[in-house]
User: Fold these one by one.
Assistant:
Number 1:
Amino acid sequence: MKHWIAGKSSWAAALLLPLMLTACLFTPGKFESSLTLHKDRSFTFTYKGEVMAVDLEGMTKDLGKMMPSTDDADAAPDAAPDADADADADSDTAMAEAEETPEQKAAAKAAKDDEYRELAANLAKEYGYKTVEYRGNGVFYVDYAISGVLTHEFVYPYNQDAAMIFPWVTIELRGGDTVRVKAPGFAKQDMGGMGPMTGGGSDDMPSKLDGVFTLTTDAEIVSQNEEGGAKTVGANRVVTWRVTPRTTDAPMAVLRVAAR
């Protein structure tokens, strides 16, 4: 019998389940990323490395285990569990899993691979993408670079057609002369207490966050959260974050730039 799990996990499950049924979620794998942001607001952002598709089906199943059944939600707190109903439910689940043949599993994987190849082809047409390759098992290789001037906020990645909705890197304009750089995608994502979010279509694929994010700037650094601090390189200050599956604090820096 499914039980209601108190606390933030159950609320997160309830809120995220509809999202997972309609959107694609992606996480970084092995990568190198950089942001050069000058005090005149000109910037260049790059990302080169793996992009890993989250196993939404597996996550949805896990969330389903955390959600209350209709019977449980309506039952009185002191109601005794229905052992026969539990046994029937377990039996039905086992039968459903047993009915999925190797051929069906292979067909489902092939369909997902086709979907990802189509996504790679579409992303390759987007501005900034030099290379987008689907390498199988839910792993993409991406070489992305874009330059511009910060007249508005910047988010990466973002693709409305592919429903990429979880930002890895954001640059927020704050006040007339301040920007905040934050990279929530370059840290372990707890997803509301349900455990880290990892990507991949199989257990043997590389699914660990492993990369370097480098900020180079000639602007004033108001604050930043890299323990080693900023280093002077020529006329610039450089902050380098090494991120792994154990990284819990997303890279963050606040800079003072030219007022507008």
Number 2:
Amino acid sequence: MHPYSTAASAAPERGLSDEPAAADVLTDLYRVHALRLIRLAYVMLGDRQAAEDVVQDAFAGLHRRWARLTDHTKAPQYLRSSVLNGCRTAIKRTRPVLELADTDPAVGSAETAVLASEQQRVLMRAIRRLPGRQREALVLRFYLDEPDAEIARLMGIRESTVRSTTHRALAALGRLLGEES
């Protein structure tokens, strides 16, 4: 029985110990989605370790709830929502530190070298200065390339609110970047 194609079993909160196939599915989910989710959390938080922690917590939560998940095909959406919620919580706890923090990712790969460029740091600082809802809308739209309907679902708002929030966020981002130059 493949967990992606059937409803969840009625197993209590034992996690995946009774379903080796489910563990394989979660391992595959991690391989496919972890890096993208870490990038999402990094853009939201500006701290690589915090981003990795949020993603790890999201996968741990999915692992605990796997037996109760009625539609396993929605696991990636669950993870994305969980990561965004974890980022919101982390931002609430560390807001003053995040606003002052500068991104200085460890150099080692081509990707981190690009992130370390001055233009990228300025943009990241400006994005993190936006209000949470605006920042989320921009990240989901332009970083994850999500459609309005999915952004609305993830943020718990209407599609029209997504569009107006994105519009206001772009205007605010333009003003913030103008201040930086």
Number 3:
Amino acid sequence: MSKKVLILSASPRKGGNSDLLCDQFLRGAKEAGHEAEKIFLRDKKISYCTGCGTCQSNGGKCVQKDDMAEILDKMIAADVIVMATPVYFYMMNGEMKTLIDRTVSRYTVISNKEMYFIMAAATSSKQALERTLEGFRGFTSCLSGAREQGVIYGTGAWKMGDIKGSKAMGQAYEMGKKV
């Protein structure tokens, strides 16, 4: 059965290491017959959540006029959500954290999703990426019925393109195929 796969790439660089891993996941998912889309967050205008609380009293409509409403609609409609980030100081980058914060208006209807996480970092230690993974898990623990299905650790990738030829590239492709 075909699934809707939404890949959220928080790389600040097209063709950056985490973005390349997204492309591999996307290729695998499409080859397996799924409807798959990648959103490159850098191309979108997503303002910071101001914590005004208006969305909590008006049916989940954020007062900010940017691209987040469209992305949130796609997150709600997806069967599978892939969240990918470069790792900065052992945490997700600002683009991904801003996206997560902005789901506050409708996070209660992002439900029953299969979740995959992709992280790319200069460190060669998977253990060093656990803080980043816990950030993703903290978010998904707030989502009803979210099920973690896979994690890709793109380690040892400092310079743009370092991830090419790594085991993580094959893992991303295979995970995409097995969605």
